[in-house]
Amino acid sequence: MSTVTDRALTKGAKVPQQRGAGDGVEEAAPKGKKKLLLVVVAVVVLLLGGGAAAFVLLGGSGEATAEEAATAEEHAEPEPGEVLALEPVTINLADGHYLQVGIALQAALEEGGGHGELEGSKALDILIADLTGKEMTELQDPAKRAEVKAHLVEEIAHAYHEAVYDIYFTTFVMQ
């Protein structure tokens, strides 16, 4: 073969080059296109994966966020509003004892800073029903009296549809 090449060079003729599998001339263009396609696919997959991860980590749709906000708002602690003092009442305790008790209702502020109008008859009815017949010794103990008050707050707040924030004893005389 060297003789053909030498002759062709001396005469100025073009020598056909033989291309084998090891030359890589024909394969260079397809490998470059494959690499570019692979890079584009990898970028698209990464972008989609990142978007899906952000969707999951940031809470999904706006509807779930609105539901969470509404739930948090429902369970938010109300702020105290105006106080309504009620006239003291006398209640019969066990063993011939009496309790003169007065309470004040503290309204819970509603949205917008307003407050609902409270009327005390429901609270007085609950107060009388819960304290009638109690032992004087039970009400003398500060811890037991705190339990009684907590129970009254729960019942009265429920009766007023959570419009009552707290109650306060204004008079508490036993005899």
Provide the descriptors you would attach to this structure in a database record.
single chain, 175 residues, alpha+beta, Tetrahydropterin Synthase, Chain A, 2 domains, four-stranded antiparallel sheet, rod-shaped, transmembrane, transmembrane helix, FliL, flagellum, cell membrane
Quick recap:
With 175 residues, the chain is of the alpha+beta class. Helix content is 50%, strand content 18%.
Straight-line N-to-C gap? 132 Å
Helical proportion, percent range: 40-55%
Strand content range: 15-25%
Order of helices and strands: HHHEEEHHHE
CATH superfamily name of the largest domain?
Band 7 domain
Quantity of strands, as a count: 4
CATH class of the largest domain: Alpha Beta
CATH architecture of the largest domain: 2-Layer Sandwich
Low-confidence stretches: none
- Radius of gyration equals 44 Å
Largest sheet: 4 strands, antiparallel
The SS-based structural class is alpha+beta
Task: Report the principal-axis shape.
Answer: rod-shaped
Number of domains: 2
CATH topology of the largest domain: Tetrahydropterin Synthase, Chain A
Q: Which helices and strands occur, and which strands form pairs?
A:
Elements: H1 2-11, H2 28-57, H3 62-74, E1 80-85, E2 89-92, E3 98-108, H4 121-131, H5 136-140, H6 142-159, E4 164-174
Antiparallel strand pairs: 1-3, 2-3, 3-4
Characterization of the model:
This protein is α+β, with helices and mostly antiparallel strands and about 180 residues long. The chain folds into 2 domains: about 30-70; about 80-175, Tetrahydropterin Synthase, Chain A (2-Layer Sandwich). It is built from 6 helices and 4 strands; from the N terminus they run αααβββαααβ. It has helices at about 1-10, 30-55, 60-75, 120-130, 135-140, 140-160; strands spanning about 80-85, 90, 100-110, 165-175. Strands 1, 2, 3 and 4 form a 4-stranded antiparallel β-sheet that branches.
